[in-house]
Write a structure and sequence with these properties.
Strand content: 25-35%
Helix content: 10-25%
Number of strands: 9
Strand order of the largest sheet: 4-3-2-5-6-7
Largest sheet: 6 strands, mixed
Bound molecules: 1-O-pyrophosphono-5-O-phosphono-alpha-D-ribofuranose
Shape: globular
Number of helices: 4
Distance between the termini: 8 Å
Structural class: alpha/beta
Length: 173
């Protein structure tokens, strides 16, 4: 079993704080659009979106990395774009994890091409020591060290995504 790194209670309380902060920051802007990055963001997005106190709509986007070595080359490919029109809207990209930063950097540029009013970023966890490109995370849950983490949307070979906590595994588990 994974070893608990961030408990369910810690996650839920931080999600509530992030939702309050996002709500306060966007109170005067009307509706915001949360763009969840599949697959990993689906649980975080579900919890975060239900705790906001401002009008919001939900979109999804899917990306894939090129080949096995792609995380180091940083090449990201768009698999599924947002379905709704986000032109002129305030957008927040919702990620489970920022690792090298390539995916989020790519997504900011990609969504910018839809001419939204603004694009901000929100991630539950970030591995700061793995960063290869700089990308601002406007709303961050937790900074973590470079370990294999699973749960709350995060997987290892598609396993353990639905754990209510974030846990650490060793690759031999
Ligand atoms: C994870 C995560 C981000 C990306 C971050 O997705 O959800 O999208 O990797 O990595 P980066 O900062 O190095 O670009 P993953 O490829 O594991 O797909 P999944 O969400 O479908 O599990």
């Amino acid at each position: 079993m994974p070893v608990v790194l961030i408990s369910e209670e810690e996650i839920q309380s931080r999600v509530l704080e992030l939702a309050a902060q996002i709500s306060a920051d966007h109170e005067s802007q009307g509706e915001i659009v949360l763009v969840g990055v599949l697959k990993g963001s689906f649980i975080f997005l579900a919890d975060l979106s239900r705790r906001l106190t401002i009008p919001r709509t939900i979109e999804f986007i899917a990306v894939s990395s090129y080949g096995n070595g792609s995380k180091t080359t940083g090449a990201v490919r768009l698999v599924m774009d947002v379905r709704g029109n986000i032109e002129g809207k305030h957008v927040i990209i919702v990620e489970d994890i920022v690792d090298t930063g390539h995916t989020l950097k790519y997504l900011i540029g990609m969504l910018d091409s839809h001419r939204p009013a603004s694009v901000k970023t929100c991630a539950l966890v970030r591995k700061a020591e793995r960063a290869e490109v700089h990308v601002d995370v406007d709303y961050l849950g937790f900074d973590i060290s470079d370990e294999w983490v699973v749960g709350y949307g995060l997987d290892y070979a598609e396993q353990n995504r639905t754990l209510p906590y974030i846990g650490v595994i060793s690759p031999d588990d």
